[in-house]
Design brief:
It is built from 13 helices and 9 strands. With 375 residues, the chain is of the alpha/beta class. It has a single domain, classed as Aldolase class I (TIM Barrel), CATH 3.20.20.70. The chain has a 9-stranded mixed beta sheet with strand order 6-5-4-3-2-1-7-8-9, sandwiched between helices. α7 runs antiparallel to α8, α8 packs across α11 and α8 packs across α12. The structure holds iron/sulfur cluster (SF4). The site of iron/sulfur cluster has 13 residues, from loops.
């Protein structure tokens, strides 16, 4: 039986322990995207001795408790040779309802092989893989400064799609980073992605952090709004809806509300809703540092210095000071993963969520898009 998300309902009231962990398993990457907020010029594809090891993960996992959502990120997470073993440790100890893997898709056979081994073992979790596509053909290669990357990413997608029939716990999607370089050509990309077999989600991530090339961040909010409207048309309605699972309408309603809040954050340069970073969400990096989120550079503490016990880090003076600042609203961002938790675990947003839900019920195909047009 699948690990149920419903067992995390108490977090609607008590927000005292993490239910979402993002693990940056490595800083290494085989692409050179100029918009990456995580890659240093000095980073290469060779393993680093100090990467948080499998044994260190084994020691840490019990202190994290049950997880709703576990995301593997990087760098390119599939470059970790022990990605399957890392997944198995978390699966056994933390029973995540959702395990998410992002990939640039540059290693098609390796990604497909490791994903299948994860799927075969972690059958009670929904395993989601998101392949990055930021443009079509040479545009993708140029944006990522990595020749041949589009062809390889599409091949990776197709190899992964072959696993869909064999593993009912598998969901396959595409993620697109929206940046200045592609903001005017997203319609064609969205249409292309919709033709991919087995697609369950196409998400957009606004470029964030401090990329090496600051030009990438000059995004027009109207372009974001247009892309959001385009993506949401046909999510649940029409003859070929993208969302076909139980709760699809609720998920679509959350998507719409989330993108509206992100748009408003972008234009007003301030936080729109409370953020549960550090209370419901945590980030672990490849050196064992825990962070409330990936946007804040202040570490809550290093697990290596706290006996591999996340609770000890979170109970520390330093962590409490950082979490206090977050609760006071001293920062803002457009990080999509955190918006999901910040919406779904905030009952005060349920009336707004219900409005979108009802609007979807009334909408004709294309009606969702209308709800995103300028108010
Ligand atoms: S608002 Fe953004 S930057 Fe601030 S704590 Fe939340 S996720 Fe981090």
């Amino acid at each position: 039986m699948r690990y149920s998300p419903l067992r995390h309902l108490p977090s609607l009231v008590w927000k005292r322990r993490p239910i979402q962990l993002t693990f940056f398993v490595t800083r290494r990457c085989n692409a050179r995207c100029p918009f990456c907020f995580y890659l240093n010029d000095t980073d290469g594809a060779e393993p680093r001795a100090e990467e948080f090891s499998l044994e260190e993960v084994r020691q840490t996992a019990p202190s994290l408790g049950r997880l709703l959502w576990l995301a593997f990120s990087g760098g390119e997470p599939y470059l970790r040779r022990d990605l399957v073993e890392l997944s198995r440790v978390f699966y056994a100890e933390n029973r995540p309802a959702i395990m998410l893997y992002s990939t640039n898709g540059l290693l098609p056979e390796l990604v497909a092989d490791r994903t299948e081994r994860i799927l075969a073992h972690c059958r009670n979790s929904t395993v989601v893989v998101k392949v990055s596509l930021d443009g079509i053909g040479e545009e993708h290669d140029r944006l990522r400064a990595t020749p041949g990357s589009f062809e390889r990413a599409v091949r990776t997608y197709h190899l992964l799609a072959r696993l869909l029939n064999r593993y009912p716990n598998f969901e396959l999607g595409v993620n697109t980073v929206l940046l200045r370089g592609n903001q005017d050509r997203l319609d064609a990309l969205i249409e292309f992605v919709r033709t991919l077999p087995g697609l369950r989600a196409h998400t957009i991530s606004l470029v964030r952090g401090d990329p090496r090339d600051a030009w990438c961040k000059e995004v027009d909010p109207a372009a974001y709004r247009r892309a959001a409207a385009r993506l949401e048309a046909g999510l649940t309605g029409g003859s070929d809806p993208l969302y076909r699972f139980a709760g699809a309408r609720l998920k679509a309603a959350q998507d719409i509300l989330q993108r509206r809040l992100i748009h408003d954050t972008l234009t007003e340069h301030k936080r729109q809703i409370p953020c549960y970073a550090g209370r419901l969400n945590l980030v672990l990096n490849e050196s064992g540092e825990l962070f409330a989120c990936e946007m804040l550079s202040s570490s809550l503490g290093n697990l290596r210095e706290h006996g591999y016990d996340a609770r000890r880090v979170l109970d520390g003076v330093r962590a409490r000071a950082i979490l206090g600042g977050i609760a006071e609203g001293r920062c803002h961002c457009t990080h999509e993963c955190y918006f999901i938790t910040n919406i779904l675990f905030n009952p005060r947003l349920y009336p707004a969520l219900a409005c979108e839900y009802l609007r979807l019920g009334r909408a004709q195909p294309g009606g969702m898009a209308a709800s995103l047009l300028p108010r």
